[in-house]
Amino acid sequence: MRVPVRGSGRPKSRTSPDGLPGVPDAPGVPDTAIEVRVVALFSALMHERSSVAELADRLRGELDRYSPGGKLPSSRALVERFRVSPVTVSRALAQLSAEGLVVTRPGAGAFRAGPRAAGPAVGDTSWQEVALSADATTELVPRTVDASGVLVSLAAPPPGVIEFNGGYLHPSLQPERAMAAALSRAGRRPGVWARPPVDGLPELREWFARGIGGAITAAEVLITAGGQSALTTALRALAPPGAPILVESPTYPGMLAIARAAGLRPVPVPVDRDGVKPDLLADAFRATGARVFVCQPLFQNPTGAVLAPERRGEVLRIAREAGAFVIEDDFVRRLVHEDSGPLPRPLASDDPDGVVVHVCSLTKATSPSFRVSALAARGPVLERLRAIQVVDTFFVPRPLQEAALELVGSPAWPRHLRAVSAELRVRRDAMAAALRLRLPELALPHIPSGGYQLWLRLPDGSGGTSQAFGSGGEPALVSAALRAGVAVTPGRPYFSAEPPAAHLRLSFAAVASTAEITEGVRRLHTACAETGSTAQA
User: Fold this and answer.
1) 114: pLDDT confidence band, cut at 50, 70 and 90?
2) Cα distance between residue 284 and residue 199, in whole Å
3) 312 CB-near residues (< 8 Å, 6+ apart)
4) Contact 256/246 with Cβ under 8 angstroms?
5) What are phi and psi of 292, to 5 degrees?
6) In this structure, what is the dihedral angle of CA atoms 26, 31, 34, 35, given to the nearest 10 degrees?
């Protein structure tokens, strides 16, 4: 977590997990004081972002004082008046310029923009209703796309709402400085803007192959633009439109959306705390004739289950006997918690016969915008995966691949993973303790040692017509929670068929602190009381 800065005669400095510099390592300064300074630096960065938004709002409200073309006060005057930094002023003006409200002229200043031209006449798009549904009568499976299960973890909540529905690390946990430094170094590499190999940079493919392990080689790895893209490529390569595919139940809504958009029929196979049930998996293969099973053997989303050792070989054997592929979505291996112990190897590392198509990504452990992932497969299927990948995206931009190499090869990378591992454990324990204290009636059957979410079962009757949560079930509770100031994820989108009970998924990675977790659970308790599930505290 600490890196000495070279330099004769200067005090050493420490960096935060994401490479933030400038914390002096002075003799006699205790570690706790240094940690406080790191937290203060993170707070300053977050305050800077909020200051930009505040200043932009203030300036936006004052634009009516100026006629079109009128000059705004100078940057220096704005700095003195609002007591903010020049960087804050520059970013606020850039935001207003992007909105078309202000025009900036180098050397001259900022001016109010002229009135906007009238928009184009509104057309008649009603014809599209016929065009978009014309083929539905001939499709075996309608290719309608419901993105609500994906959008719930991508959309930013309103200001002041605690984000228990996020699917990515909070900015304070992301290695922002390390990523910026990696991108800067990558930009200086010779040929960084040249066309990369369509399969990906050889060094990056080798790095992913080593992480997968077993006999997987760099030649069997394709670099893709994020895990969602890799899953899309795999499903399109392995199953024709109208075909059934087996999925865990519950499972990741984004994968269900991919399948339905491709005209595939997701067939659920129940999981418990030890992963998918092999006997039911075998039954599903026999009943459907499916040739694909999609699973998350490690810290499954949403349950957090890990496929038990005795089930791993069974799953591969059952799929092999069915002549089927297993798509292994190894999405959070790098978000293991500090107390997890040794992790099981990817299924792909124990698969000599090419049954497993492996998907892994850097995104969850870095940033939603760091979309670098890998597809690994053996045998003739690799060529089909490659062909679809090339047709869809050509290749992943080379600067991003070079930046990924710089990041994972830097000393900041293992420090970041260790720091996130420790912090996720603290946050998980804080959320579990708050739920037991405030909402003991919500069942928490499994506390995972990896990933970023807890999966709660609501009291019986909460998904139906009366009892615990009123006639609205999950939607009523989710709406009440939002009114109380906390965004949560309903369980229904995680099931490809009728759910056995009502659930909530709560994320502890997207919030700012453990204090925010405690407050979020308090607000959720208020929402539960509003829907009639518990008495007010």
Assistant:
1) confident
2) 34
3) 297, 344, 347, 350
4) no
5) -145, 135
6) 170
